[in-house]
Structures are given as structure tokens and as C-alpha cells.
Amino acid sequence: MADTYECFRLEVADHVATVTLARPPVNAQNRRFREEIIAIFDMLSDGTDVRAVVLTGEGRIFSAGADLKDRPTLEEAGAYPRHNRIVRESFNAVMECEKPVIAAINGAAIGAGCVLALCCDILIASENAYFAMTEVDVGLAGGVAHVRRFFRESDARLLVYTARRVPGPELYRMGVVSACVPPDALLETARGIAREIAAKSPLAVRAAKRSFNLTEDMPLRDAYRFEQSQTVALAGSEETKEAQRAFAEKRKPVFRS
């Protein structure tokens, strides 16, 4: 995959893609950034050479959020709906990617940067990282629905109403991130998880992610029925048969997809 992006770097090795936010100085999100992240994650979702993705930031900041110089004005009819649509889809591209996405949060994740991290499947934070939802500091509001998915209700409201910083170790204590590690161990920790995932049945992993995404707001009965339908669909696949043969023969499976 050629690296032809203005705001990102993309590397692929061992079925793991590393997507690095690379828009100095603070990886702020403008229209070009959003168009590129949509294109990258749509491609990775379809690609057969990638089974897991690591998303991280260049430098000392994961993402300082939306580029305020890029915001639309109310004077131009239709500008805000167009802007809001691409903002939504930039987040949706990460959430809807068929491959699991591990956030390697290397530094500050502020506002839309925090939301972007929360769109990933698994969150790993550096000890130097922190989350902050600073919209109220500039007279705006947003991100509540995403924050609520990871924070308890009182903590979510505290984060949004006060705009205070929550550092990596505290995020780990709160159960928001799965690990908080020294900065020099962050990328390898995230890639290690990605390689673990990449060694599993790609069809089964994609089915599991589909279940997580589609059943989040379903009643338990309907959600579990959907999951069972995924199991039935997988049961007859050659990949599942190979996984079961390998388990019985105590060897590593060989997957073609």
C-alpha cells in the first residue's frame, strides 16, 4: 500500500496496519484529514492483507481535536450539514472497519481527538496520554454519545462539563483503557495485541466485530440470536474447519483469507 496521504502515514507488516496521524503540529482534524481517514479505513476494511489495525499519533500528541479554523459559518446555507456529515463519517469509518482497531494513545486526545480514540475497539494509553473534552471551553458541545460508551455516567458528565484532563493512569484505573504503559512500550504493546488478533480466524474476528457493532443497542434476546446466526454462518466455512482441525492437532492454523 503506497503512502500517498497528506495527514497520515500507513505501514503494513505481518497482517497488521499501523495508521499514524501525521498532521503537525498537533494532528488537528480538518476536512482533508477526515477525507483521508475515511479513505484509509474503507480500504483497510476491504483489504485481505490486513487483519488488525493500530491507530496512533505522531509526536507528543494523539490529536488535539477539530481544527477550529476549518469550521463552517452559519451564513453559508448547507455548510454545517455538509461539515457535520463528514465529521460523523470520519468516526464511523473507524468504528465500521471490519478489522479490529487498537488505539495506541501516545499523548493528548482532546475533543474530537478523544472521540476518535473512543471509536476504536481496544484502547491502550501511554503514561503521558490524557483525555479531555474541551468543547465547553470554546462555547461548543459534542461527543457525549461516544464518551458515554466508555465512561460511567457521573464520570462522563464530569469530563464533559468541566473539560478537565484525565491522565492515562487514571483512565486505566477507571477501566476506560485496557492498559497504560511507558511511552517507549506503547506501540509494541498495541502491535502485539494486533498480531494476536491477526493470528486468529479472520472470518471469525470479523463476525465478532460485527456482533459488537450491531448488538450494542439491541435487547439481550435479539442480540444473542444475531450472534448465533453468525456462528451458524461460520460453521460451514473452510476457515472454521481449519481452525478446528488445528486445535485438535495442536498446531497453528493456516488461514487463507
Number of H- or I-type helical stretches: 10
**Largest sheet at a glance?**
6 strands, mixed
Q: Kindly estimate the percentage of residues that lie in beta strands according to DSSP.
A: 15-25%
Total beta-strand segments? 10
Into how many domains do the coordinates divide? 2
Strand ordering within the main sheet: 1-2-3-5-7-10
- Helical content band: 40-55%
Helix-strand category: alpha/beta
Succession of helices and strands: EEHEEHEEHEEHHEHEHHHH
Poorly predicted residue ranges = none
CATH superfamily of the largest domain: 2-enoyl-CoA Hydratase, Chain A, domain 1
How would you characterize this protein structure?
The chain is an alpha/beta fold and 257 residues long. The protein has 2 domains: 8-198, 2-enoyl-CoA Hydratase, Chain A, domain 1, CATH 3.90.226; 202-248, Lyase 2-enoyl-coa Hydratase, Chain  A, domain 2, CATH 1.10.12. Helices cover 46% and strands 16% of the residues. It is built from 10 helices and 10 strands. The chain has helices spanning 31-46, 79-96, 112-118, 144-150, 153-162, 168-173, 186-198, 202-215, 220-235, 238-248, and strands at 8-13, 16-21, 52-57, 61-63, 101-105, 108-110, 122-126, 130-132, 166-167, 179-181. The strands form 2 sheets. A 6-stranded mixed β-sheet has the order 1-2-3-5-7-10, with helices on both faces. The chain has a 4-stranded mixed β-sheet with strand order 4-6-8-9. Helix 8 runs antiparallel to helix 9 (220-235). The longest helix has 18 residues, at 79-96. The radius of gyration is 19 Å and the shape is globular. The mean pLDDT is 94.
